[in-house]
Amino acid sequence: MGADTSAGGLTQVLWGGLTVGCLYAVLLLGVLIVFQVSKSINFAYGQVGMVAALGGWYLASAAGLPIWSALIIGAAAAVLVNSAIDFVAIRRIPEGRPGLDLVVTLGLFLLLTAVMQQLVDANSHTFASLGSDTSTVVGGVVVSVNDVFVIALTLVLVTVAHLLLTRTSLGTSLRASAEDATIASAAGVNVLRLRTGVWAVAGLLAAVVGYLVASRLSVDAFYMTPILVKVFIAGMIGGLDRFLAPLLVAVLLGVYEAGAAFLLGASAGTPAVFLLIIVALAVMPRRFMNERSEVRA
Amino acid sequence: MGLRTAHRRARLAAAATGITLLAAGCGGATTSTTGDAAGAATTCDPKAVGPGVTDKEILLGTTMPLTGSAAAGGLGTKEGQEAFYSKLNKEGGVQGRTIKLTVLDDAYDPSQAQKQMRQLVERDKIFAVSGGEGTPNFLGVVPYLKRQKVPAIAPYAPSDTLGNMTNPDVFMATVDYIQEFDLLTGYVLKQGPAKKVALVGVAGNVGDNAKAGMEKALAGKGVELLYIPETPGTTDFTPIASQLKQSGADWVFLILTNADTGGLLQAVSRIGYTPKTAAWAGMSDDSYIKEFGALSQNMIVALETASLASSNPKVQQFVRDFKAETGQEPTKFNQLGWVQAQLTTEALKRAKGLSRGCLVEALESVSGFETGILPPVTWGKDDRAGVDAVGIGQIKGDKLVVLEETTSSGK
Amino acid sequence: MSTRSRTGAPSVALGATADPRLKRSRLPRLLLVVVIAALPPLFFDDYWLFLVAQVAAFAVATLGLDILYGRTGQMSLAHASFMGVGAYTGHLLAGLNQGVAVQLLGVLVVSVLAGLVVALPTLRLSGMRLALVTLAFGELLAWVLINTTDLTGGTQGTSVDPVVIGPLDSSVPMQAYLMALVPASIATLIVLHLGRTQMGRRMLIVRDSETAARSVGVAVARTKVISFLVSAVFAGVAGWLYAAVAGFISPPDFNLFASVYLLVAVIVGGAGSAVGAWLGAAYIVLMPQAFSLVGQPNLYPLVGGALLAVVALLVPDGIVGLSRRLAGRFRRAEDRPNHPDRPNHPDRPDRSTSGGDR
Fold this sequence. Notes:
The structure holds three protein chains of three kinds. By secondary structure, chain A is an all-alpha fold. Chain A has helices at about 5-40, 45-60, 65-90, 100-120, 145-165, 170-180, 180-185, 190-215, 225-240, 245-265, 270-285, 285-290, 290-295; strands at about 135-140, 140-145. In chain A, strand 1 (about 135-140) and strand 2 form a beta hairpin. Chain B has helices at about 1-30, 70-90, 110-125, 135-150, 175-190, 205-220, 240-245, 260-270, 285-290, 315-325, 330-350, 355-365; strands at about 55-65, 100-105, 130, 150-155, 170, 195-200, 225-230, 250-255, 275-280, 300-305, 380, 385, 390-395, 400-410. Chain B has a seven-stranded mixed beta sheet, sandwiched between helices. Residues about 1-40 of chain B have low confidence and may be disordered. In chain C, strands 1-4 form a two-stranded antiparallel sheet. Chain C has a two-stranded antiparallel sheet with strand order 2-3. Chain C is globular and about 50 Å long. The relative contact order of chain C is 0.17. Chain C has 15 helices and four strands. Chain C has helices at about 10-15, 20-45, 45-70, 80-95, 100-120, 125-145, 150, 175-195, 200-210, 210-215, 220-245, 255-270, 275-295, 300-315, 320-330; strands at about 160, 165, 170, 250. Helices cover about 70% and strands about 0% of the residues of chain C. Chains in contact: A-B, A-C, B-C. At the A-B interface, helix 1, helix 9 and helix 10 of A face helix 2, strand 7, helix 7, helix 8 and helix 9 of B.
């Protein structure tokens, strides 16, 4: 403890930031693939992960189910809820009304929150530790099993998603329907099935991130909202219609946030992030600035 | 520029419409009531009868967060009040009347709280405000209550702006965070020498007040204080944990939400730092100890309400009564609600008449009143503070052990 | 209320320029507006007048956002923050013993400055990234408020002294209503008139397609900046008014969620329409209370969210769009189909073809 130097402290903080940044990236992956097929923003997406984690907590702690079956049921619920959001709401949003997706999913956000508060309760709970309490020291930095799992998972998921998108016919269909759903459909892509599948996968990603965040902090009906805000920030800076750039921004955002909070004080974390946004958008080369839909217009 | 011409013409038009409406409005002034003169709580006229009082019933009301991120406290406090009044009504009520309580949801939002409070005062016509829970939301209704002169009894809204004659209609029964941390720090210093202490607090008034209280207790003691403000919704506590570890503080004081206290303690333990901790009264609640007790072993906590495990016969009586009413074990917030209703009832019992003036007079007569749950409550002609003491407890296993029943600053 | 959707601008403002045909048809409408505005003081009690005064204050804000979002197509997630700028500026000036005139002037100046800060990025940004800059501005303002407890009351907020103008005192609901009505009327007239001006038309072109706007020689950046400034001033005045009516302000009144709710108001009411902005303001102020009034106060959180989603899905053009659709069935030939103050007419080009908003 006494041997802890400033540099060691900083490395520890950056490691923590890297892990949190990876969690941002995985959730952002869900946002990105959904944006590909639906061109919409789901404000209730974080709450899908909350449904899984708070529901999972309830099944394990209050109803006494074994943790693994509780987690599986929770994840299934997330897949179901996310698919339902698309099926009941997003698909029915008429074309060409920007902002309507925001309003509709804000309504769903409020609904999911209220329902879970009624079904479970309004308290904060400790979640299954998922390895966050088992750790070892590597070069002066405490590394937990949970940290390693998060980083490995992120690498695997991003690689798999990237390969799927660029190397398989599935990816081609996906990109085709993202470009123009009507043409893709005419070319024999089952756009609707593809879309349903993507929303289901995104639900699963939300559940996984929901679990991991809950294991590192705690779980209640609100804990995913600050995460989702950061995820959207990374997505908007990097561009929701791109792939690697926004994911990288998400990881860096986690690292930057942690570093700023450590070096400048915890209360400086918030302004540091938002000043970064303004600076980043001010100096970004113009060719990155144009969103694809606009270039086309 | 179209806008400038628009402005010019609009100004003309607005003047015209304004005048018309003004005329219309003045005509209407006679039909609408402005303010509730009957409720003015200046003096006690035993024959006068305040709003919300009939031969059979007295209407009381308040707002609390029943939904949203702060709902846990509001729901518990509401249950506590309802249990007390339900028992009271079964036993015949007070002043020959039963109590009807309306609790509206303010979602912890000051603006919503004011709208709901206006509904209670102006439409439901409540007699007085019975308790309440949450500081910012309650503060949102204070200017309105002041104008309407509606007495508010024992809301749980720790703030240095309440409990004095600036807001004479609000009778507090809780210490503010300056006092709480002054007392808590005083207790900790008595346990042994310390060179450096740290405080992690919610950024803003809550953290600032806790810091002020600690500074008061530390003045002249040669103990260094590191203050780290935290914004609720922090997604990564490693930076704060590392900063604490590096500071090498002997004690870490905490005034954060349950979730953030748990999150920080987890990060602290993850990086292998094991400081002694002391925290505000929120951590004395069962809902905290049940969830985060394992992370909080030996944490010293301030007690705003008596520990439910206390051997004090009044506390044990409360636990029995609450269980009989609801069939549940009480929580800290149930206890808070209960004592709010108890104090309101005590004032109603003492009132010479059922007008707001008489209620205020009765409240001012309360002196050293023992609830068993709070330290003795005293109000007076120029005293709205109610209590000036906290107890001290410690989290051991999954239990809260009482170290000191009450420790007073002896005002 | 839907009758008001076709009320148009009172002819007092337009008498000078409008042709006689218009003038004839507008007089009854003006009377209708005056009658509706006079109803609350005549028939409502304090509780309702307070709510209606709040609706008027919020209407100034939603009208401003309607200029920015409904007409110019710029998404702002900081509109409530601009309200906060106005509210706190007024409060601080009142604390320095400044009168109403100085307060209002201060609110205008600071709003313009704040608007400029946020408007400058519009020179290079649009769509979601612009929304992000506005969000950053809002978060920074919240941070400043929390860290200046001595000045602003910090997280727990501060009570605001009532604004007194002559015999009117904003702590009395009826008088607050009358005071709020003046800026609300001015704001409404400006928005109604905007549709007839060059600038108003330029805004619509920018909204529908920036590329198209450039090709026809519209100064896109300038249009957007002006739109930002006007909306910031509207929001600042609205915030100042809200503070006077409510008597208490605190950071949650002006946070991200509050901004999102203002967007909700504009969209639910009907984007691009002054009446829609009023209906939206009424929705966000009155909807939570509606549940209390029917005796189900604790149902709102549960039903409110679902209701919002359902309303947005069923009535994508907002309440104004719905009433127009209904009215269209009974419409007689005398109605002018391309009325300038109804830019959101269903016939307008579908925005999806130009896609400038994401």
